[in-house]
Amino acid sequence: MLQRFLGDEAGGGEAFTPVQVVFGARAFGIARLKYGGGGDWYGDQTSLRNLLTGLRERTNIPVAGDDAATVEPGTAALYQFPFVFAAGHGNIKFTDAEASNLRRWLVAGGFLWVDDDFGISPSFRREMKKLFPDAELVELPFDHPVFHQVYEFPGGLPKIHEHDGGPARAYGIVRDGRLCVFFSFDCDLGDGLEDEEVHHDPPEKREAALKMSINIVQYALTH
Predict the structure, then answer these.
(1) Domains in the chain, number
(2) What is the pLDDT of residues 113-158, one digit of tens each?
(3) N or C: which end of the chain has fewer CB within 10 A?
């Protein structure tokens, strides 16, 4: 279950103390990760707004705001958001200080969802090794609870865009028994969440993307 954070979260000061928060005690917001490396961190511009609208209309999750905030990985502001989204096509890179801060946020209860827009996978995998050298990015089986939350996805992630033509796959990093990083690969849920006029995806693709994204949020809030 997600936590909020007290103390000097950004590093260099006294240790922070993670404090358990009862689900529903505070409104839920999403932040978009503004990472370095030159990749298009700013993409999927309507996706998170549509996800927040879907959460507000389809679940009992109290939602804060109409769109996502923007947060940088090395800042204390990261600790204001228990759920952070990142996407892109190109390079993602963290400085050592950013990696340290992001790792502490994840270990203390943060949840990072990275969506492959087609091309981010090599640099994402490299940077995850910087965060967790001993942790493997493992493929999640179809019976994983993230696929069986508000909506049922017995075959795993829905395929929204073709990319390389392979099956959509979900990967994760587990720390102390908790999934803290979720990587949707060769799928492009973020594009499926966009306004219709952006990619002209058919209604069933956009609906599948929204339902699976709601599942990801629901899972993060309850595990």
Answers:
(1) 1
(2) 999 887 789 999 999 999 999 999 999 999 999 999 999 999 999 9
(3) N
Question: Residue 160 belongs to a domain with what CATH number?
Answer: 3.40.50.12140
Tokens of 212: 């699976």
For residue 199, the model assigns a pLDDT of 67
What distance in Å separates the CA atoms of residue 198 and residue 55, rounded to the nearest whole number? 21
Torsional sign, CA 61, 44, 144, 161: positive
Query: Taking the model in full, what pTM does it have?
Result: 0.87
- CA neighbours within 13 Å on the CB side: how many for 65? 11
DSSP state letter for 120: -
DSSP letters spanning 166-201 = ---EEEEEEETTEEEEEEEESS-HHHHHS-HHHH--
Residue 54 belongs to domain spanning: 3-222
Helix ranges restricted to H, the chain: 47-58, 96-107, 121-131, 189-193, 196-199, 203-222
pLDDT confidence of residue 131: 96
Q: Which helix (H) or strand (E) holds 17?
A: strand 17-20
